[in-house]
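Anyone up for a design puzzle?
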């Protein structure tokens, strides 16, 4: 071959190679709304939610698109936006997870309920007063919480292969760290969710049956589960405090799940035999008034033991709350407001 022919051959080869890699790259571009991440890129932006007669909402998200192919893991924080350690944990994941070393894609929903975050509100959205984690899969024509839920379902949950919904004790809840093994009725998916929640390593794990109607999944994790995707909910942190220990527990779990799913290099940690809670009960208030806890989070209580009491707004005792069975206090309300129908305490039995 003369020199000219060699040059033509080399040029042709380079063009073909470039074409192939471009095609591969195009196939792995992740686009959500108007946010587009090429392989090896981390890109952030907002999902827009048209509010109808409610104020429009927006959801801050990040796409961490790995340089190599692999599964899609969705991490959701701020469904209850007075729960700060999960929100901080995802900000750290965005900063620390190198897309060049990632196989697959991590989708971060930084603050699902931004309107409530901005107003510093526990449980509820300030415009329709609904709990976002009770209205999934949502409705594009519904009130604002349903519209936010619908956007997360459509843009995030349908795109992922695995999902973790990260919570903690809300602004009023003293809580020990724990996770929910959410069971949606499909034994294969339930078994995969169990392995995933065990790999996360926040124990104890509460066995929690979820509704099996795909039209009324209610919870974030169950929306994924009813689509056949392993998912779970975890809790680390409490009382509106942003503490490093709770953040680190979540980061340790996320890191280990990424290793377990072979999305990053490294040995999967073994956190030992998980403790399972087979039975749990959330006790709700029968009155409006003030709640006075008599015990703390993590305490073990006997059946019938007083857990706390409620008074009216003038100090008259209305009700003493007794433990329904012998077990551990998973969370307990640690600020005064008690509202009829709202949770006071969750007790778990091992
Ligand atoms: Zn929560």
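Challenge accepted. My sequence:
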């Amino acid at each position: 071959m003369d020199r000219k022919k060699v040059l033509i051959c080399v040029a042709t080869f380079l063009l073909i190679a470039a074409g192939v890699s471009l095609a591969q790259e195009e196939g792995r571009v992740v686009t959500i709304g108007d946010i587009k991440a090429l392989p090896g890129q981390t890109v952030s932006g907002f999902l827009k939610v048209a509010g109808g007669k409610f104020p429009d909402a927006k959801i801050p998200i990040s796409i961490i698109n790995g340089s190599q192919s692999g599964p899609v893991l969705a991490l959701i924080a701020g469904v209850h936006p007075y729960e700060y350690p999960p929100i901080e944990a995802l900000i750290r994941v965005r900063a620390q997870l190198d897309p060049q070393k990632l196989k697959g894609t991590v989708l971060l929903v930084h603050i699902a309920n931004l309107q409530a975050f901005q107003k510093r509100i526990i449980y509820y959205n300030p415009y329709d007063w609904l709990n976002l984690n009770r209205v999934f899969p949502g409705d594009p024509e519904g009130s604002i919480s349903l519209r936010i839920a619908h956007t997360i379902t459509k843009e995030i949950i349908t795109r992922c292969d695995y999902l973790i919904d990260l919570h903690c004790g809300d602004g009023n809840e003293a809580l020990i760290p724990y996770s929910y093994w959410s069971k949606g009725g499909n034994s294969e998916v339930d078994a995969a969710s169990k392995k995933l929640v065990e790999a996360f390593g926040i124990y104890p794990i509460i066995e929690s049956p979820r509704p099996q109607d795909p039209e009324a999944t209610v919870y974030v994790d169950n929306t994924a589960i009813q689509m056949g995707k392993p998912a779970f909910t975890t809790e680390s942190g409490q009382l509106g405090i942003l503490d490093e220990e709770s953040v680190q527990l979540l980061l340790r779990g996320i890191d280990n799940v990424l290793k377990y799913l072979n999305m990053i290099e490294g040995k999967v940690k073994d956190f030992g035999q998980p403790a399972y809670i087979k039975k749990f009960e959330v006790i709700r208030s029968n009155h409006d008034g003030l709640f006075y806890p008599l015990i703390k989070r993590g305490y073990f209580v006997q059946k019938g033991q007083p857990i706390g009491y409620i008074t009216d707004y003038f100090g008259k005792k209305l009700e003493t709350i007794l433990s329904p069975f012998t077990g551990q206090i998973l969370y307990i309300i640690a600020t005064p407001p008690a509202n009829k129908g709202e949770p006071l305490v969750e007790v778990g039995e091992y």
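A detail worth pointing out: The mean pLDDT is 93.
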